[in-house]
């Protein structure tokens, strides 16, 4: 049985601004539950941001999955739309060009996260 897990994608549109897109990752039955295909990664970065973190518009340094290990982040894209990603949530940043996005700490909490950089040819869907 095919199952899908949902994540959010941040990407640069034709307008040069970042946007959100909800995508689904296919997962297949596995002896321990469900599992996706393997995606090629080029590195892993551990990061901790302060409780006052407030980073104005910036692009992602690379295509990367972001996994929130502890704490949350509020992301704002070019349209002004905001989303909060909490502990345990995963999103993919592909807005490596254009205006980028804003990221801020939530509720005055430190955030610990894991960044998994992707090979250029990997498509996250």
From TrEMBL:
Source domain of life: Bacteria
InterPro entries on file: RmlC-like_jellyroll
Designated name of the protein: Cupin domain-containing protein
Protein species of origin: Candidatus Lucifugimonas marina
């Amino acid at each position: 049985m095919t199952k899908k897990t949902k994540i959010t994608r941040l990407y640069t549109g034709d307008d040069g601004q970042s946007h959100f897109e909800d995508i689904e990752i296919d997962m297949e039955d596995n002896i321990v539950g469900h599992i996706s295909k393997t995606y090629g990664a080029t590195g892993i970065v551990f990061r901790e941001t302060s409780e006052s973190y407030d980073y104005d518009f910036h692009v992602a340094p690379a295509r990367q999955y972001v996994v929130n290990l502890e704490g949350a982040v509020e992301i704002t894209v070019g349209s002004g739309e905001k989303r909060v990603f909490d502990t345990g949530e995963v999103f993919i940043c592909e807005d490596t060009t254009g205006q980028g996005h804003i990221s801020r700490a939530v509720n005055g909490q430190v955030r610990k996260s894991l960044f998994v950089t992707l090979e250029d040819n990997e498509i996250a869907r």
